[in-house]
Design goal:
The complex is a heterodimer of chains A (132) and B (129). With 132 residues, chain A is an all-alpha fold. Chain A folds into 2 domains: 3-50; 58-127. Chain A is built from 4 helices and no strands. The longest helix of chain A is centred in the middle third of the chain and has 32 residues, at 58-89. Chain A is flat. The N and C termini of chain A lie far apart (40 Å). With 129 residues, chain B is mainly α. Chain B has 2 domains: 1-55; 60-129. Helices cover 83% and strands 0% of the residues of chain B. The chains are: A mainly alpha (132), B mainly alpha (129). Chains A and B meet through helix 1, helix 2, helix 3 and helix 4 of A and helix 1, helix 2, helix 3 and helix 4 of B.
Chain lengths: 132, 129
């Protein structure tokens, strides 16, 4: 499959997924989102594997990776501090909007760290070499 | 103490912290995360002090960048799906579930915007075509 075809199909699949998620929210049925999201992701991965030729050049790849690492470092730090401040300032009313947002931010932050550590471990094993 | 070991300790600490936070939220013990975070900060301070220099060589820096990219991709997709599921369970945004969903959406969107802006900054900084 050519890169151009993949891009067009990718856009179409993404819009179908947006429609599925919106329908799911409006109907109040979470199973539609779970199944639709999962299926969309699988189809996108299958299409991505079938693309031939150079998908992205090295320069863009390096820039994207560096930007993502920077985003991860800054984003998690800000989310963590903001979440903690909200939790501690509103500790007397656990079910208040601010406390819920604070706990969600801190939970999300730790989940992001766990994903990052797993990705680091996977890439470290995949690349081989001395583990230091 | 190596950088890879530090990353492993970080992962395990994050899992423990998630349980501590869940306990704090369930029983309303707001000071529990504070104590845990201070303990974790002290522990990481000691571990980083014991690390050999240089902390990050070229290999670990490259792996870190790759892991960062994977994290942003997986997390933004995962957060959008998780937020949608929460909204589908309860589509009233004035409830706790709705607010948690909106927070998750906001984090996902903010991460993507920061990533895009940083990418533009690096592109301009590096120059070239």
């Amino acid at each position: 499959m050519e890169m151009k075809t993949f891009k067009i199909l990718g856009i179409i699949i993404r819009y179908i997924m947006y429609a599925v998620v919106t329908t799911s929210v409006l109907l109040g049925n979470w199973i539609i989102t779970a199944v639709g999201g999962g299926l969309g992701m699988v189809v996108l991965i299958i299409l991505r594997v079938r693309v031939r030729g150079v998908v992205i050049d090295e320069r863009i790849k390096t820039i994207t990776r560096e930007a993502a690492y920077f985003t991860f470092s800054i984003g998690t730090f800000i989310a963590f501090i903001a979440g903690l401040v909200l939790v501690f300032v509103h500790h007397d009313s656990l079910m208040s909007t601010e406390a819920i947002i604070g706990y969600t931010l801190v939970f999300t932050n730790f989940a992001l760290y766990i994903i990052n550590d797993l990705a680091y471990y996977y890439n470290s094993r995949k690349l081989g070499g001395k583990m230091d | 103490m190596t950088y890879t070991t530090l990353k492993r300790v970080e992962g395990i600490t994050c899992i423990v912290m998630l349980f501590i936070l869940a306990a704090a939220f369930t029983w309303g013990l707001w000071y529990l995360p504070l104590i845990a975070i201070i303990c974790a900060a002290v522990m990481f301070g000691v571990l980083i002090h014991r690390m050999k220099e240089p902390y990050r060589d070229e290999r670990t820096a490259a792996i870190d960048d790759k892991a960062g990219k994977a994290t942003i991709s997986i997390a933004s997709f995962g957060m959008l799906v998780a937020g949608s599921i929460l909204l589908a369970i309860n589509n009233d945004i004035s409830t706790n579930t709705g607010q948690a969903a909106i927070t998750i959406f906001s984090v996902a969107i903010a991460l993507n915007i920061i990533s895009y802006l940083t990418k533009l900054y690096y592109k301009n900084k590096l120059g070239g075509k």
